[in-house]
Amino acid sequence: MDDRDLRVSDAERNHVGELLQRAVGQGMLSLGEYTERMDTALAAKTRGELNAVLVDLPGIRISGSTAPETISRGSVVSSVGGADEATVKATLSSVTRSGAWDVPRLLRVRSRMGSVTLNFADATVHSSTVVIEVDDYMSSISIIVPEGVSVNMDGLQAVAGSADNKVRGRRDDSSLHLEIRGRTRMGSVTAKHPFGVTIKRMLG
Q: Does the pTM of the predicted model rise above 0.70?
């Protein structure tokens, strides 16, 4: 079966809606065009119908007659090289790592118009320093860390996107430190504490 004939989920429709909103904010679409495309996206049943509202936005190349090359089915989380390295991939979909998951020394995040959540609250970490390499296009990446963890995002380049480090902890040799580097294009990368930690700080 051709990818263009695959059925799409509500999550995919909603994510395309977010991309269209971002295009309006950057002046690529008028409000009238946004409304028309949103109607099409919400009514889309197949990948080809959903892709049709994105094909003329900058940065999306066309393969054949309709489908962008950057869009493929589903999402994959795979490990490479044992415990030392792993790769998280999200393409027009959502990937979440949370709970008691094993964190390698090097974690690569490859995302295309998707969303990735990495929650370190209950994770098992085998190294005091973890490097997260980001290669992102039009995605949302959230990195959630408990108190005592430090985060450095100086090595991350944001191109028409955002990189927001909300973690206030300082580096300590005895605690976990995350080095986030790489590039996000028209996307967002946010490092933050869990919601409850933020509330506690607000209450003093």
A: no
Pairing of strands 177-185, 162-165: unpaired
- Nearest CA among 168, 175, 105, 165 for reference residue 141: 165
Per the CB < 8 A criterion, the answer to whether 155 and 55 are in contact is: no
Q: What are the tokens at 165?
A: 């480090």
Strands 129-137 and 106-112: parallel
HEC profile for the chain? CCHHHCECCHHHHHHHHHHHHHHHHCCCCCHHHHHHHHHHHHHCCEHHHHHCCCCCCCCCCECCCCCECCCCCCEEEEECCHHHEEEEEEECCEEEECCCCEECCEEEEEEECCEEEEECCCCEECCCEEEEEEEEECCEEEEECCCCCEEEEEEEEEECCEEEECCCCCCCCCCCEEEEEEEEECCEEEEECCHHHHHHHHCC
The two tokens of residue 72 are 């493929």
**The pLDDT value given to residue 155:** 94
For residue 136, what pLDDT is reported?
Answer: 94
Contact (Cβ atoms closer than 8 angstroms) between residue 109 and residue 85: no
Q: Which of 23-27, 32-36, 48-52, 57-61 has the lowest mean pLDDT?
A: 57-61
Per-residue tokens: 66: 């309709």
What does the pLDDT look like over 139-171, one tens digit per residue?
999 999 998 899 999 999 999 889 999 997 677
